Backbone:
């Protein structure tokens, strides 16, 4: 299995096995529509010719919006606005999927201006907020929102959708025993905690039809006490595959532990900008702790992928620390993954897939400093903010 060999996801043919993993762009209008900056970002990525590009997470309803310049999939207005972006990507031979999300308890309360919705009232230790427990009606409506958003993605010409069920956002919040303390049909045991995701999947599938690829990104491990672990996530992944999911990207971590998701440097100076001393001390020490116990290494979720893969009958996408041709090919050849995905390296070097294919480079120059993560968290536009003299963490 070679990196630059074709692969098929739910009937969609990809030119190679390299994926651009989702990264929040923060370039939308205040209505969540793509702008010239969005189009520019995707044009540069498409020129690098990865097999598949996954957009940053687009909210399915304004109650699930995390950032003021996040893209939305909540209104039909997005359909015409995304079409030219999608067309540009196609002209370069790549494919593009829209990632859809509801932010749940991880929406920023100050920016969103609405009550935070979550499975249970578990405080958010980053934004110091307390969400409200969703009613059954709100849950049902939100499931419908996911379906409608997916339908819009298909109409806009996207090649696939990816359901964001990772990183502590609403779906992931339902899956995690830490944040889902419900005792009704939406929580109480692993089966009921996974019901929200399976219902979202079924609704999305019926909205887009059987001939349109539906993927998911899901935590294999929350990496927090009482969180989701492989004992529960692996069987769920296999169940989703049996229900008709077309591909699964595995990840880990949540807002309270972001360095599990994007391992590497601790962007404390950026995160602490404008904050008072006790808060700065709190964030600096938390980030230092996370960084120490979760150091960066290449392909850092590969061991989980290798354990899950033999039982998973659909393509597995490995993300997290993919940084070299050799490492990427080793993940494919060892049978741990069917595709490899990169986020930070392609923000820095959108033409990296092409450079790798042509043999002009064999490593990413991204040092995983996480300054991009810090800047978007502060509301900045997605870009590489790596200092020229920064070393690998
Ligand atoms: C700036 C930034 C924005 C991100 N936005 C998203 C997102 O919108 N959706 C998502 O699923 N993951 C998001 N992630 C996580 C990445 O997709 C990826 O899982 C993680 O960074 C590890 O991959 P990497 O080592 O190739 O960067 C983001 C990461 C960064 C650094």
Residues:
């Amino acid at each position: 299995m070679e990196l630059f060999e074709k692969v098929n996801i739910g009937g969609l043919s990809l030119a190679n096995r390299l994926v651009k993993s989702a990264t929040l762009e923060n370039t939308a209008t205040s209505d969540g529509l793509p702008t010239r900056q969005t189009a520019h970002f995707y044009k540069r990525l498409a020129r690098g010719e990865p097999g598949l590009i996954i957009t940053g997470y687009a909210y399915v309803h304004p109650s699930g919006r995390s950032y003021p310049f996040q893209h939305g999939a909540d209104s039909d207005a997005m359909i015409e606005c995304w079409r030219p972006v999608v067309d540009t990507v196609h002209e370069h031979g790549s494919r593009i999927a829209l990632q859809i999300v509801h932010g749940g308890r991880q929406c920023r309360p100050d920016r969103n201006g609405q009550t935070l919705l979550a499975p249970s009232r578990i405080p958010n230790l980053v934004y110091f907020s307390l969400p409200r427990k969703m009613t059954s009606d709100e849950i049902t409506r939100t499931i419908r929102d996911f379906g409608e958003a997916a339908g819009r993605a298909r109409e806009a010409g996207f090649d696939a959708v990816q359901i964001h069920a990772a990183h502590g956002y609403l779906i992931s919040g339902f899956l995690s025993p830490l944040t889902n303390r419900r005792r009704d049909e939406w929580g109480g045991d692993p089966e009921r905690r996974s019901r929200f995701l399976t219902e979202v999947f079924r609704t999305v599938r019926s909205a887009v039809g059987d001939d349109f690829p539906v993927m998911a990104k899901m935590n294999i491990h929350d990496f927090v006490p009482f969180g989701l672990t492989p004992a529960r996530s692996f069987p769920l992944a296999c169940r989703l595959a049996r229900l008709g999911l077309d591909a699964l990207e595995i990840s880990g971590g949540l807002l309270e532990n972001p360095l599990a998701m994007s391992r590497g440097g601790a962007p404390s100076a950026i995160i602490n900008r404008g904050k008072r001393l006790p808060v700065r001390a709190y964030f600096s020490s938390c980030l230092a702790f996370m960084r120490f116990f979760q150091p960066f290494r290449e392909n850092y979720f590969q061991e989980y992928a290798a354990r899950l893969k033999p039982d998973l009958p659909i393509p597995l996408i490995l993300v997290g620390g993919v940084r070299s041709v050799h490492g990427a090919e080793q993940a494919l050849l060892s049978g741990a993954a069917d595709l490899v995905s990169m986020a930070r390296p392609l923000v820095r070097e959108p033409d990296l897939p092409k450079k790798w294919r042509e043999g002009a480079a064999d490593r990413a120059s991204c040092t995983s400093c996480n300054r991009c993560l810090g800047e978007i968290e502060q509301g900045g536009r997605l870009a590489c903010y790596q200092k020229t003299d920064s070393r690998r963490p």
Remarks:
- Residues 27 and 69 are 6 Å apart (CA to CA).
- The domain at 7-265+296-368 is CATH 3.20.20.70 (TIM Barrel).
- Residues 136-155 form the longest helix (20 residues).
